[in-house]
Amino acid sequence: MIFVFALFLLTLLVITALAIVHTENLFVAVMLTSIFSLLMAANFFILDAADVALTEAAVGAGVTTVIFLSALALTGEREKPRVGGRNIALVTVGILALLIIYATFDKPRLGDPNAPVHQHVAPWYLEKTPEYMGFPNVVTAVLSSFRGYDTLGEVFVVFAACIGVLFILGVRPPRESLEPRDESSGLRHHLIPQVVGRLLVPFIVLFGLYVQFHGEYGPGGGFQAGAIIATGVILYALLEGEAEALRAVPRSVLLGMVIGGAMLFGSVGVVCMLMGGAFLDYSVLAADPVWGQQLGILIIEAGVGMAVCGALLSIFHAFAARESLS
Amino acid sequence: MKLLELLGYFNYWVFAIILTVGLYAVIRKTNLIKKLIGLSIFQSAVFLMYITMDKVEGGTAPIIQTGVENQIFSNPLPQVLILTAIVVGVSTLALGLAIVVRINESYGTIEEREILDAD
Amino acid sequence: MLSAPLVVLLQPRGLAWAGATVAALASFAIALALTIAVLDGQPQVYAMGGWPAPYGIALGVDAFSALVLLVVTGAGAASLLAARPSIDQQIEQERQPLFYSAWLLGLAGLVGIVVSADAFNIFVFMEISSLASYILIAGGPDRRALPAVFKYLIMGTIGATFYLIGVGLIYMMTGTLNLADMEARIGDVVDMNPILVAAGFITIGLALKAAVFPLHVWLPNAYTQAPHMVTVFLAACATKVALYVLIRFDYLVFQAKLADHEVQFALFAMPLAILGILVASAVAMFEGNLKRLLATSSVAQIGYILLGASFVSQAGLSASVMHIFNHALAKGGLFLAVACLAYHYRDLRLDQLGGAAARMPWTCAALVVCGFSLIGIPGTAGFISKWLLISAALESGPWGWGLVAVILVSSLMAVVYIWRIVEAVYFRAAVEGDSQPAEAPLQLLLVTWLVALLNIFFGLFPGVPLELANSTATLLAGFAS
To answer: Any CB–CB contact under 8 A between B71 and chain C?
Structure first.
């Protein structure tokens, strides 16, 4: 049954992708992209990747859509049609598709437990995680300890994007802003979204915190939590208007969160070195290595959550501030 | 059994198709935002490829439950990689959109040809 | 010890120029220390998090990475050291902290790529460095910087994603992400198709990043529109790091194990390299904007590096690695001199630069020295690598003479375009009245001359880089045969 469902989902995925490319209304395209992400998330879930599904849903369907929409508000939503030049693009991508399909013929069958992917490194993680970490979510263990350095790098990618958006949008717009928009923007005057939204926001944030601290046991962790909390605050901003949200969480606090989160992660690494271990070797943090690992992971996950949440919100506010200017 | 096998190939083919569709949009579309949408589809396709390879028959999400023996788990590593890749993708996208917004401000358009004509 | 540069580099707060420069200098010092350690004979390995290699992420530095590391950190430190006056002119005060922290992130990303021994880790750091360089280029004062950077962003992301696909395919077949481990296990793979396709994806993806000839279209615009000091930094090292990964993958991971990969790589790389050298040099000859001219010539120089690698011989590799080092020196120096010029000249078209030599004699002299190095005049650093390249070409077989001809023709073209610059600044009358001597700020000028002198120094005493290049070649060729 589940296979039929998976086939159905994948087919939908393809149809959505084609529709996105075909439509000339950018607003429609963005909404379809959001649906595309949700379908993708469902698909990941069927393929046993709960953590990834959660991230794709929060980041892909939630945050990406919001950022796209706030950019669309600043540009136009119609795409101009174009004639000619189609053939070159078609030939290029056609070759690409053939190449990949050629490669798939020797790929191991889906779900084959003997495929080389499942042989070498992966079983080691599955076997050692309970022993070294003392908690069940292997994904979290690999993410934050075995391959913690990648995650550190990733936090810095987010950091780079954040300072990039702030830097690029930090220039004053060329046209002088004539009349500032109506202060009471947002959906404040609509009764139903406001009531429902007000009810939802605390739960979203609470859920985010749960995902943050439960990441070692169930699916979840810093990224997902950061994205979910950011979504909650963005919803608040949509309901109550930009200014209100900024009053609740000011810009400097957001930037502080990004820098603080990244620094927290980095400094855990340095502390590990100072205490005689390797960089990001959490085992030295406490007398019992297992406890040390758990402590280290807890701290860096908090750092990741802070950084991601702060960065996404800063990016959102940067776009939104632009909007009220022009 | 047969079905799973078919699904296996189907997953890879869907990966190939989505990848192609995304890349086509990036190359062919002249609207800058549409290009970015294409880029994000293109990247999602790669996520699908990684997640497809981590599936193990009869497996479950890699969260070890106490008291249950002989569980089969899916491979955690690709999931970790994709978690990272998703966030990287979103970062690139945000930066790209910021640039598009600035382009729109200084050129008054987000169509590639009109920008080329403007200079 | 090895993680120290990363720790230092990876903590950018709202750092202003001083902090950034200190961090860059510190990383340069660490790179020097590492190089000395490597010269002693032992490659350095560091396991992140204390987990053993295939499970955790390992860092490793051998002769090849040490050389590239020197180039990257040296370029970063030198350009930051000189950056202050030029950046003050081009970027508003309140945006500078963000700008410098992006710069540091870019440097950290490049360093991270070079020292990493893990395929996925390389991807992550590649993205850090690319995002940072998009930001840096977008700092350019002209509005044309924005479309340029957008194009770079699209092509760069496609390149990185291709690389990711390739790594995914290899991981699928070998079950590992560690480069050394990959190399060991790739031989056991029975089905060759995915590996072949993976090799294709990785090579094309990285070639996009490295601006190898037909995929270079993003480079001239991006370099021309970037703030001048950013061009110095990026031109000296950004594409070279992508080439470094390309060479590393093709030689260490694929070369020995894939049937005929050697031939395929040579067949793929050599025509592209030759075309790139000839076409880009020819375009540069007719280019009217000084910065764009030099950027176009970078594409040709990348062609040289690739050409050396495509011989698949020890001499070729060593020439290619040498050229990475020397070109960074020559091009870095040239762009530094351009930044000096730009301090007084807003418009960098050649016909606007008349009489510059009278106004800024020191700057123009440095420009000429580095230009000679780019051409490959004996006594400068560029000569050493051109010489190595020519002798490698002669060794490479029956068509060696043809290749030598290509190199000589393109060197002649380089003479032409460098001569056009010299003519413009020395022999053309000043366009406007303002012609009293006005040198660039001392800070900028000193660094420019330091680099120019290094060009001569390494032309006369190429000992250390040559030794590193030779041991790199032995290392890589050892895997190949």
So the answer is: no
pTM here? 0.86
Q: HSE (CB half, 13 Å, CA atoms) of B97?
A: 32
- Count of the separate structural domains present in chain C: 1
Contact state of A160 with C135 under an 8 Å Cβ cutoff: yes
Residue B9's domain comprises 2-57+73-118
Residue B39 half-sphere exposure toward CB, CA atoms < 13 A: 31
Inside any domain, residue C310: yes
- Chain A neighbors of C99, CB-CB under 8 A: 167
SS3 string, B48-100, reads HHHHHHHCECCCECCECCCCCCCCCECCHHHHHHHHHHHHHHHHHHHHHHHHH
In this structure, is residue B63 part of a structural domain? Answer: no
Q: Which residues on chain A are in Cβ contact (under 8 Å) with C135?
A: 160, 163-164, 167-168
Tokens (6 digits) for A297: 């992971």
Q: In this predicted complex, what is the ipTM?
A: 0.88
Of C6, C135, C176, the CB nearest to A168: C135
* Closest residue to A170, CB basis, from C48, C50, C98: C98
Instruction: Report yes or no on C367 lying in a domain.
Output: yes
Is B65 a domain residue? no
Name the residue of chain C whose CA is nearest to A297's CA: C49
CATH, residue B108 = 1.10.287.3510
Q: To 5 degrees, how large is the angle CA A302–CA A306–CA A308?
A: 115
Task: Assess if residue C100 is contained within a domain.
Answer: no
The minimum CA-CA distance between A200 and chain B, rounded to whole Å, is 25
Work out the angle between the directed axes of helices A191-214 and A222-240 (0-180°, nearest 10): 160
Q: Is residue C150 part of a domain?
A: no
C25-53: pLDDT as tens digits: 666 777 666 666 666 666 666 666 556 66
Q: Any residues with CB less than 8 A from the CB of C458 and at least 6 apart, and which?
A: C325, C326, C329, C381, C384, C465
Residue from the list A102, A156, A263 with its beta carbon closest to the beta carbon of C105: A156
Give CA–CA dist A273/A294, Å, rounded. Answer: 17
**Domain total of chain B:** 1
Structural domain containing residue C333: 261-481
A256: chain C residues, CB-CB within 8 Å: none
Longest CA span, chain B: 69
Compute the radius of gyration of chain A from its Cα atoms.
23
Residue-wise pLDDT for C235-279, tens only, equals 878 888 888 888 888 777 666 555 556 666 677 777 788 888 888
Q: Is residue B67 part of a domain?
A: no
Three-state SS annotation for C351-366: HHCCCHHHHCHHHHHH
